[in-house]
Amino acid sequence: MALLEEDRVRRLLRPLLRTRTVLEPVASRPAERELTGTRFGGLPAMEDGESWPVCDGCADDLRFVAQVNNERDGLHDRLPIAFFTFFYCWNCHPWGRSGERGGWLVRSYTSLTDPHVADAGDGPAFEERHALPLPGKSLPDGCGMSLHCPELWDLVPGDSGGRDAWANWRVVDSASLDLTHERVRAPHLRNAGVAIGGYPYWANGGDQTPFCPDCPDPMELLLQIRPTELTDASWGDVGTLYLFMCREHTQRTGLRIQCT
Ligand SMILES: [Zn+2]
Ligand SMILES: [Zn+2]
């Protein structure tokens, strides 16, 4: 099998380019407490009339993981919501279940009319940490090509593991780095880090992008949490958590977790 030409690979990849925002941990806190600032841990902002969410599996309080001011900190072609909060239940460990709902919650808002920060003691909290948003570009990682670029997946070919395939994946990696200028140069770390938008870094196993039940489209990455100093929350043994949302039907969200 002939080695793929990098020009040809670049032509296949260019239409797939997405932007993303990497959330880089920072030690400093904002000077003033920001009601709807992006943060991990601490207390969430809620809309007037909302209360601390309860797990629909075990009826315990959900734990607040993170909130994102998408409108301000989403420096990419963001999903059409202004703000979201994310809660999770460590009693129920919802990943791996067949159902899309249960044991976790994304509350998303196109605008907030009268938000307030939840009271301390309303629910269990992680230590509050902050992030700096940095813009970047993103292409699917290796296994993501099976969904997003089947033509390339077939050309490589896919996950055959043959020597030719490895050589072809190196061509793909080189072309990808050339197009995205990712700061993390190691190709096997494509889409690393904590990020909103772009494509996921599938930590272990194949592409598990959920599809929207209301349309034929795959959902888009809303938030990816790789193991990070941004949060004490963790999922299994070195787990990466992925939240997805349909761009058209923003009430449709999906959760995936992969452990390495
Ligand atoms: Zn639960
Ligand atoms: Zn949809």
Automatic annotation (TrEMBL):
It comes from the Bacteria. It holds the Pfam family DUF1963. This is Uncharacterized protein YwqG.
